[in-house]
Fold this sequence. Notes:
Layout: E1 2-6, E2 16-19, E3 29-39, H1 41-48, E4 59-60, E5 64-72, E6 84-87, E7 102-106, E8 110-112, H2 119-139, E9 147-150, H3 156-167, E10 171-176, H4 179-188, E11 192-195, H5 201-208, E12 213-218, H6 225-228, E13 232-240, H7 252-256, E14 261-264, H8 272-287, E15 295-300, H9 304-315, E16 325-329
Parallel strand pairs: 9-10, 9-12, 10-11, 12-13, 13-14, 15-16
Antiparallel strand pairs: 1-2, 1-4, 3-5, 3-7, 3-16, 5-6, 6-8
Helix pairs in contact: 2-3, 2-8
Amino acid sequence: xxxxxxxxxxxxxxxxxxxxxxxxxxxxxxxxxxxxxxxxxxxxxxxxxxxxxxxxxxxxxxxxxxxxxxxxxxxxxxxxxxxxxxxxxxxxxxxxxxxxxxxxxxxxxxxxxxxxxxxxxxxxxxxxxxxxxxxxxxxxxxxxxxxxxxxxxxxxxxxxxxxxxxxxxxxxxxxxxxxxxxxxxxxxxxxxxxxxxxxxxxxxxxxxxxxxxxxxxxxxxxxxxxxxxxxxxxxxxxxxxxxxxxxxxxxxxxxxxxxxxxxxxxxxxxxxxxxxxxxxxxxxxxxxxxxxxxxxxxxxxxxxxxxxxxxxxxxxxxxxxxxxxxxxxx
Length: 330
């Protein structure tokens, strides 16, 4: 089968597009014919070695996918050949990735694709959807009628947070960098959109939420807690899911005197059962038209190296040439 892989951790240019042996599903696994694979920042960190994880060699890149069941291994009863499926959490913690024509996936990380949801949408919503759901509902306990702020409302995770918060009945404030992205954020459902290149974020948030925001979702890798914490409401929650090397200043007085909380998480630490609960809502909201994938580029699998470089240029170097997910098609 054709696959995008590396023989050892390295730069995007080390990704090889070539032939590897087609996997055989073991007990509890499902062989999926991959239709779409999606790229996330974590994919580039694992591939480069910036995030140290055990990986099989050669290592096929990719965490998110959608496809069709080709065959099932022993002890798999929920899925059958021909079923459309989607999933995430591959290529992590020793698991092989999915940027290939076929992938053998643990059935615990596999979900049925709703008939009205496209493979592109399913793959693009996978990791970002599970991440958003875990942070909003398991950790921040977002409730109907609360106000949420999310930095970067048109990015992969940010755009999903905006939509899920609206689906839950929250009021949403978000930031963007251009007027074009502002229009996108409004279409996604944001109630208040702040152009951080023109407007003062603190002043704009105070005007939009005089009593503070109930949940502040931080997407940037170098969070400014001196900005966010004073803008939290009483019993506000701050969600952190990026910035492995960040060491922000914590304004303690503004934090504990309002009974605030900080929650941090990485989606790949969530149990299969926790992720399955997320997947059920993701599939339902996508089918109901409440959750749309924010897709920026669709590229052939043969251009995986260029796709990873594009992701890195935007995640690490902030080039601003990407406003959504990159998809790869075998």
